[in-house]
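To whoever is on call:

I kicked off a structure prediction for a single chain this morning and the downstream step that reads the tokens threw a length-mismatch warning. I double-checked the sequence; it's 540 residues and nothing unusual in it as far as I can see. Pasting both halves so you can look.
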Amino acid sequence: MQKAETVIYGKHIYNGTDASTFDGAVGIVEKHIIYVGDRDGVEPFLSEATTILDYGDRFVMPGFIDAHTHVQMTIMHHEGVYIGRCLSMEAAAEKVRIYSEAHPEKEWILAYGWLMADWGSNEFPTKELLDKAVPGKPVIATQGEEHGMWLNTKAMEWVGMDRNFPGIKEGYVKVDSEGNPTGCLFEGSMRPIIKKCYDFPTEKTIDILNRFSDYAVANGVTAVTDMRPLFGVNLGKDEAYETYAKKGQGIRYFTTLQLDKDNCEKVLELKERWKEFDKLYCVGFKDFMDGVASAYTAYVLEPYSDCPSTCGQPFMTKEELEEKVLAAHKSDISIHIHCIGDAAVRMVLNAYEMANQTYGRQHQRHAIEHIEVLQDKDVPRFAQYDITASVQPQHLVLMSDTDEGETYRGYFGPERDHMLFRNKDILDTGANVAFGTDAPIVDINPLPGIYRAMTRVHDDGLPLGGWNPSQIMNVYEALKAYTYGAAYSVGLEDRFGQLRVGYYADIVAIDLDLSAASPEEIRDAKVIMTMINGKVVFRR
């Protein structure tokens, strides 16, 4: 009998799918699990050389898998200045000024996190305040959901932003009465700036992948789906991911490319080429169907309650969407599409349904990302065609830490409140739900997200009982979405996301028993050990 190199004992072991824990052991040889069961059963696997890790009353589980991250942007945020939660645009500009003066070595300044809701205003920012704060170098200040930018004049000159700039005709670039850009822009119009700011050399991308890995493992995250496409730009370089993977250290990256019928061969080629790695996978395509509610660019069926002149608009026509989806589905490639509004969700559900009816099912694991507004009639369609709802429970409070400061529900009015963030409704139909953070939109730590899924309250504990309390999940439902559900969303549930014999030994230990803890205790809990491929990569 093969002897275990490592055995983990615990009184509260969660396997990634069951609605319970067990008192027992997990045995590991090299990268894989060879035993899961009670304590007596592991005895034959022990030898004098076996390393014993006993976590007693604490919690042992599969490594968290974050189903939606933006790796390059996250690390760039770590190098910039946070201007979220400022109470005015003047205060935000002042933080940028202070940061710029403290970092004279930077050729350009990245700020991030601003939301007009924080300023108590629907007034879009303009270049003048940033010009006054930092007149001598470009400033790129990204909106809190990364769907908008605020630039100073130097940044506008840097990217050649004039009255002919892409996106003006579509209304995504704000202009003055004479048609000149004011320094505020949204959605696809940001593409030239993204290309300018995120076109890193290979060595820089490798450094980013390593730094993100360190950030992830400290939070118990052992794998992430890296949504590389950002408004048509695939962030990072393939060769950098391959160099990272060859070293065999750190987390696993499940990567996506821009959805395009002409990219099918590229995805299939990467899938085949990366089969030699266990830290790198190409899992399909990613695209955007709409924007975000905070910029009124999410595509909804009925006008916004506080901006009745618009429903937003789709980023693709019905014909463009269907052409792309049909080509990918025919090639057996999975697709992940960003949809915030109910109109966008319905368009994508219709396209996925058409693809299934036209070509049948193979191994595709299509997903819709975010799903913040959802009509009753569309809830059961996820289960019908095995479409994953890839959602981020922390987004529930993205607009405000407190219930009093909440603006999100105001976009849609009380008549649509029941349609918002319907994660439990989707789960109850039998559909797969995957959890993530959308890092850097929120911190990658999964535990606050589990707390949010279990309470649906703001940090002040309001509203009492949570908003849309029928959508509250229990701890096992939330944990499954962050383990098995996330692995299933990329078609890799046969090797990740569970503690089972033959699976990779990606395991975390947490400092308290999550199955018996209050939601508040779960929120504040700490990961004390992260293991990947049977090796401990983080200890607290």
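Update from on-call: the warning came from a stale cache, not from the record. Cleared it. Sanity check on the structure: The first helix runs from residue 39 to 42.
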